[in-house]
Amino acid sequence: MINRKSMAKAAGVGAAATIAIGLLSTGAAHADTFVPLPGGEITKTLSDGTVVAIRLVGESANINPSLGSTPLHRNAWVSGSAQVELSGAPGATGGKIFPGYTVGCQVNIDGGGASGGVEGTADWSGDTVTGGVGATSGGNLTLGPGQAQSFYVLDQEAADDFGNESHRKRNKFAGDNGSVTWADETIGLNGCGGYAQARTFVSVEVETDNVITWVTLWGKPFSLG
User: Fold this and answer.
1) Domain check: are 23 and 67 in the same one?
2) Are 102 and 114 in contact (CB under 8 A)?
3) 185 and 157 in a common domain
4) 151 and 157 Cβ atoms separated by less than 8 Å
5) Which pLDDT belongs to residue 76?
6) Same structural domain for residues 140 and 205?
7) How buried is 1 (Cβ within 10 angstroms: 0-12 exposed, 13-18 middle, 19+ buried)?
8) pTM (global) more than 0.90
9) Taking a C-beta distance cutoff of 8 angstroms, is the pair 95, 215 a contact?
10) Phi/psi at 5 (nearest 5 deg)?
11) Per-residue pLDDT reduced to its tens digit, 129-142
């Protein structure tokens, strides 16, 4: 005797399995791509003999090339750790660490800088950035072809001297070393119909008894799709 309840139950399981396979297939087509990045290291000797070493370690990006299922949207989650060490200074030392990212749409951001609309007046052409990076905070960007923009990772809330809320883009340290780590920070890019890239920067403002200066380490550019 045929058990129609069993047949209906089996058919339901089969239909559910088919739906599950369909969902998995859709997910596979839009799967995130994990990109391990090499980080980097730079060492600079300042005019007073202070040696500044900046290291970028544990760097990675998890990229979704088509947020919203259109070629104009990208999304990435980025992680890394910046480490700073000062040595050889004749007096007291300390500094501020400003980690961030430069994002470009159809623009070359290799070689330590980017043209085509990077915010601020800083010189992006080399390893040192004079006068600061000039970046904004927040990784939700809208860029057209030939444009690039930079943003800081940190947004620390703190009271100013008058008790009002202020936002700071750096991690301050005293003494000879400091560090800051970030995980799954979002880069959201809208409006870019061509290829898009991003790269990490770690700018450090170093302060000794004799010198206040900036040193910047650049990470390797990576594709956002």
Assistant:
1) no
2) yes
3) yes
4) no
5) 93
6) yes
7) exposed
8) no
9) no
10) -65, -40
11) 333 444 565 678 88
